[in-house]
């Protein structure tokens, strides 16, 4: 085989306003360029402790068992479901988005029986329907998506949902991939047993070390399993030896990704978590108002609008893929199309972390309006731009 000749790495400089990843803060990139140490080095052990404490702050929890899982957000998702759901147990999952379906698939692979609580794509779960599903199926585990990336829906009434589950002695797992660090989330106050997230959304960190937290009761369930989980790599009873007091070898942690996550979480703490939630509401609110001023709708009702992921309606007769290509080619601006039941009906526009800045929102609204107009939509680009300028 001939020796390959590959040019120097030179990816395009995009503005990331899709469903993730988001723009990474320069401080996080610098952290990744700092010297590598071993994953059992005393200096790295100290960094592990600091990262865990910062994660507790972002999750709003005192859970001792709060770690970054080595892998993308799907790894923390599988660690949560694969450890908590035991073979033969029943897990109740939602049908109102793509990632509820992924929960179901992971539960089945863990040996669980899956039952569903129905809600249309683009709407949250109704607590009354959740209560009815518990009465009918008596599930052992209940999973819900706090911020559904496929629909732009934020699940309200979380304490009511967790209360229903705990009245039936079920463990609650929350998908917080698109809410951690950008949308109000209170793990302890809302009585969530297990929560997982991805670093590349509102934390504005490259993927590779993904947040996970478990309550004492949830971890006790994991440690008292009759059979080990099917994944050795994601077995939390083994990872406890590395991330717990013992600091025993399990695998080689992604050291530079932990550096990055630590720095991203430092930025969260410096800003203040509640101020950060407010910033996302304000910045995404300007985006939402600008889009609506152009004459384009957003899918979710205001009551469960998700600031970090905005579902922009595709005007009749407009090719969503062509609009996405226009933004990428003409503006180096990334957004995404809809998934599943909403494919072709919405454009998914993120407003997350370091991407949730006035300059990005101004660019997005003007560029999106121009692309839609050029593709035949009846939009008022100037009205959108003026509205954003007034709000920011």
Explain how this protein is built.
- With 392 residues, the protein is an alpha/beta fold.
- It folds into two domains: 26-270, Aspartate Aminotransferase, domain 2 (3-Layer(aba) Sandwich), CATH 3.40.640; 273-391, Alpha-Beta Complex (Aspartate Aminotransferase, domain 1).
- The protein is 42% helix and 15% strand.
- It contains 13 helices and 14 strands.
- Strand 6 and strand 7 form a beta hairpin.
- The model has no long low-confidence stretch (mean pLDDT 96).
State the gist of this model.
This protein is an alpha/beta fold and 392 residues long.
List descriptors.
Aspartate Aminotransferase, domain 2; three-stranded antiparallel beta sheet; 392 residues; 13 helices; single chain; seven-stranded mixed beta sheet; Aspartate Aminotransferase, domain 1; 2 domains; alpha/beta
**Tell me about the biggest sheet?**
7 strands, mixed
Spatial order of strands in the largest sheet: 2-10-9-8-5-3-4
- Structural class comes to alpha/beta
Residue fraction in strands: 5-15%
Which CATH top level class of the largest domain fits?
Alpha Beta
Shape: globular
How many domains would you count in the coordinates?
2
Mean pLDDT: 96
Helix content: 40-55%
C-alpha Rg (nearest Å): 21 Å
In DSSP terms (H or I, runs of 4 or more residues), the helix count works out at 13
Structure summary, number of beta strands: 14
CATH architecture of the largest domain: 3-Layer(aba) Sandwich
CATH topology name of the largest domain, in short, is Aspartate Aminotransferase, domain 2
Low-pLDDT ranges: none
């Amino acid at each position: 085989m001939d020796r390959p000749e590959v040019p120097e790495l030179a990816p395009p400089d995009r503005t990331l306003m899709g469903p993730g990843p988001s723009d990474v803060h320069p401080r996080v990139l610098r952290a990744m360029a700092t010297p590598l140490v071993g994953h059992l080095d005393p200096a790295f052990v100290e960094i592990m402790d600091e990262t865990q404490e910062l994660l507790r702050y972002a999750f709003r929890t005192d859970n001792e068992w709060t770690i970054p899982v080595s892998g993308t957000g799907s790894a923390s998702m599988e660690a949560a479901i694969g450890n908590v759901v035991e073979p033969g147990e029943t897990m109740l999952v939602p049908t109102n988005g793509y990632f509820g379906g992924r929960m179901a698939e992971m539960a089945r692979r863990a040996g669980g029986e899956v039952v569903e609580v129905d809600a249309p794509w683009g709407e949250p779960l109704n607590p009354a329907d959740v209560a009815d599903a518990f009465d009918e199926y008596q599930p052992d585990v209940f999973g819900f998506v706090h911020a559904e990336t496929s629909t732009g829906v934020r699940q309200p009434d979380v304490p009511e949902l967790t209360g229903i589950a705990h009245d039936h002695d079920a463990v609650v797992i929350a998908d917080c991939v698109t809410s951690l660090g950008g949308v109000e989330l209170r793990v302890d106050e809302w009585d969530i047993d297990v929560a997982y997230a991805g670093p590349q959304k509102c934390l504005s960190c490259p993927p590779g070390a993904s947040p996970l937290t478990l309550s004492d009761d949830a971890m006790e369930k994991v440690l008292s399993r009759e059979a080990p989980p099917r994944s050795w790599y994601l077995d939390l009873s083994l990872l406890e030896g590395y991330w717990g007091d013992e600091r025993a070898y399990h695998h080689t942690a992604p050291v530079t990704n932990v550096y990055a996550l630590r720095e991203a979480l430092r930025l969260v703490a410096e800003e203040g978590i509640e101020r950060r939630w407010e910033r996302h509401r304000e910045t995404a609110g300007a985006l939402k108002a600008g889009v609506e001023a152009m004459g384009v709708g957003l899918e979710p009702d205001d009551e469960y609008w998700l600031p970090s992921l905005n579902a922009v309606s595709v005007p009749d007769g407009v090719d969503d893929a062509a609009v996405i290509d226009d933004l990428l080619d003409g503006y180096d601006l990334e957004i995404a199309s809809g998934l599943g039941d909403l494919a072709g009906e919405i454009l998914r526009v993120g407003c997350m972390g370091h991407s949730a800045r006035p300059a990005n929102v101004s660019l997005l609204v003007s560029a999106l309006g121009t692309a839609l107009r050029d593709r035949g939509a009846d939009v008022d680009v100037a009205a959108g731009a003026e509205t954003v300028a007034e709000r920011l």
